[in-house]
Amino acid sequence: MPINIYIKEFQNWLKGVFGLNTIRTALCECITDTLDAYLKDVSPQELKQFFICLDINNISKLKTKVKGRCRVWEWECSHERCNALMGRFVHNHTHSYQLKYKWNKSSNISDDADRRNEHQKFKWRYFKLFKLYMHLDNNYTSLEDLDISHVIKAMRNCKLFYPDGSAEPYDEVLKLRNTVMHSPNNTMELDETLKLLNKTRKLLDCLDIAEKTYYKKAIAELQDLERNDFVLKYRSEESEFIIAKVLEARIVADELHSNIEYNNQLCKSQSKRLQDMLEQIVSSGITTKRGFEMTQAEYKVKVKQAMEQKRKTIALDKIVFDEKSNDYKTLENLERKTEVDIKEMEVKMTRTGLEEMVDVINSLNKELGEKNAKEIGLKKKLKESTKEIENLNTKLEYLEQERKVTSNAI
Predict the structure, then answer these.
(1) Could you identify which of 3, 188, 230, 286 might form a hypothetical disulfide with 192, taking C-beta atoms 3.0 to 4.6 angstroms apart as the criterion?
(2) Domain ends where: 204, 227, 250?
(3) Residue 358: inside a domain, yes or no?
(4) Are residues 258 and 207 in the same domain?
């Protein structure tokens, strides 16, 4: 069945995607901020040289194990400062006891600046260092390229991002990320969405960054997602044209009003009434944005971006698994279904406003039906409770009579 992008469950899923994007942005800011503070005692030149030596020795990440065994990797350079820096980064790995490396001091390694490429420039320093804690060898060039799962897994591998010493907040958000991105029907119940928004806030809270601007911005966005629903504005092309023309007329009326002499009271009052009338028309056609209020076109763009993000995420997740594994096959099937969903959704998005209103009405009818069902259920429970109360009162009256008879007999 084609996706109805207006039903509540789909919009709950869409909020989940928005929430993940919000926390990903905040976590990337946190990474840059934390590494900047940690490297205050390292000069830019020392760091650049460290990057050169990493590339010369083909070191892009700190691997923990290969086929269940600790891997000993060697690297050569002539700089004791590079060795000291490597020691610091290995020490901050959450599995540092599994890391085995050997530094060979060599005077044969060239420090030729020509060997530096684009990602060795100083502006990429934080990503270059953060990448040491990643598992996969992907051609990423900046933090902005990373999926939320890559960000979380790498942060989980680095002690610098463990202010409270617990990995649980990371694991919970990662699990909920999979719930969103691996949803077969692109739907979520409200309680699942609220759980995701709550867990993302908890992860940010445990990082001890409450005074940071990016933290406050992320928290505000997550609270907006929790408190507000999507409100779509519907205006036909004709009404859009009318509003545009009225706006033009209002400009002319304003100029006319300002040019009329003050002593010509009759013309002045008439032009003022014209201004007020045009303002009223414009005000009735243009509303101030509240919460997630947007036009249908704006909403469709958001939906398409979310679906494309899901498709790319599934493709990334497949890389982790062997092609013969059940997990890989499950994701492959989900990827195919998502591609079909996107194509069907694109077809639906080209329909006329009247055709699309059918989906909106159906979604509203579904909501109304669910509310009516809940109301009927509550009325039924109320009726049953009232009957139980009546039965209890009858029993109490009977017991009271029994007590009186017994008292009189005594």
Answers:
(1) 188
(2) 227
(3) no
(4) no
Task: In whole angstroms, give the CA distance from residue 182 to residue 169.
Answer: 20
Question: How many distinct structural domains can be found in the chain?
Answer: 3
* Residue 371 within any structural domain of the chain: no
Q: List the domain range (segments joined by +) for residue 88.
A: 8-227
Query: Residues 137, 60: contact at Cβ < 8 Å?
Result: yes
| Confidence category of residue 280, pLDDT binned at 50, 70, 90 | low
Contact by Cβ (8 Å): 155, 170: yes
Indicate whether 19 and 124 sit together in one domain.
Answer: yes
Q: Are strands 65-66 and 69-70 parallel, antiparallel or unpaired?
A: antiparallel
Express each pLDDT in 334-378 by its tens digit. Answer: 999 999 999 888 887 776 555 555 565 566 556 556 656 666 766
Alpha-carbon distance of 253 to 395, in angstroms, equals: 79
CB 90 within 8 A of CB 61: no
Q: What are phi and psi of 294, to 5 degrees?
A: -155, 165
Q: What residue type is 212 in one-letter code? A: K
Span 28-42, pLDDT tens digits: 999 999 999 999 999
Q: What does the alpha-carbon distance between residue 342 and residue 249 come to, in Å, rounded to a whole number?
A: 42
Q: Do 252 and 195 fall within a single domain?
A: no
Residue 164 neighbours by CB distance under 10 Å: 11
